[in-house]
Amino acid sequence: MHPSVVIEFMDKQGNVKSHPPGAPVVKIVIGQVKASDPSYPSGQNQETVYALIDTGADDVYIDEALAARLQLHRTTSREVQGATSTIQSWAHAGFFRFSGTQKNYAADFVATPLAGNGRRYQVVFGMQLLDKGVLEMDFHRHTYRFSLEDCLP
Questions:
Q1: How far, CA to CA in Å, does 23 sit from each of 36, 62, 114?
Q2: Does the predicted TM-score (pTM) go above 0.85?
Q3: Given 3-state DSSP classes, what are the helix, strand and coil percentages for the chain, each rounded to the nearest 5?
Q4: Is 151 a residue whose pLDDT tops 70?
Q5: Burial track 22-51 (b if 16+ CB lie within 10 A, e otherwise)
Q6: What are the residues facing 55 on neighbouring strands?
Q7: What range does the domain containing 44 cover?
Q8: Whose CA is closest to 107, among 123, 121, 96, 122?
């Protein structure tokens, strides 16, 4: 059985509700992994935040201030292209799990200035992650869910 979570919707002020309109988000716990084993949480520096479900994004992104606060380890230099600019950044090794579940997933989070650009969510799940799961956005039945396959580390 794959962990499945209800998608909620965040307005521009950061208020979250169970139905649209708003940006689709899921509540996650995110944190540091052990340097010796990047697939295993370190047990330190964890926070509960909201992640945007963004089918138009390629990667998995994290607010740069959150990455620094969690002291996530840098892995590789990355170029991030936005609608109006391109910046140099870093990918950071971390883990996440859906709030209320126990299964942890390792991920490389690319740091970007989300809060600096007025975003209230602190993580973005792009297609690199979303295509490994099942995304259900049924506006007729008011069913909004996301689940991940067990193929992730």
A1: 36, 16, 14
A2: yes
A3: 10, 55, 35
A4: no
A5: ebbbbbbbbbbbeeeebeebbeeebeebbb
A6: none
A7: 4-148
A8: 96
Rounded to an integer, the average pLDDT of 91-97 is: 94
Give the mean model confidence (pLDDT) for residues 106-130: 95
Q: At residue 69, does pLDDT exceed 60?
A: yes
Give the CA radius of gyration of the chain. 15
Residue 14 lies in a domain: yes
CATH of the domain at 28: 2.40.70.10
In a domain, 153, yes or no: no
Q: What is the mean pLDDT of the chain?
A: 91
User: Helix H segments across 1-144?
Assistant: 64-70, 127-130
Only one residue has tokens 């991940």, namely 148
Contacts of 1 (CB under 8 A, 6+ apart): none
Query: How many domains does one find in the chain?
Result: 1
Cα–Cα distances (Å) from 86 to 29, 77, 79, 112, in that order, read 29, 13, 7, 11
**pLDDT the model gives residue 85:** 81
Which residue reads 């590789």 in tokens?
76
In a domain, 36, yes or no: yes
Three-class SS of residue 50? Answer: strand
Question: How does residue 97 score in pLDDT terms, banded at 50, 70 and 90?
Answer: very high
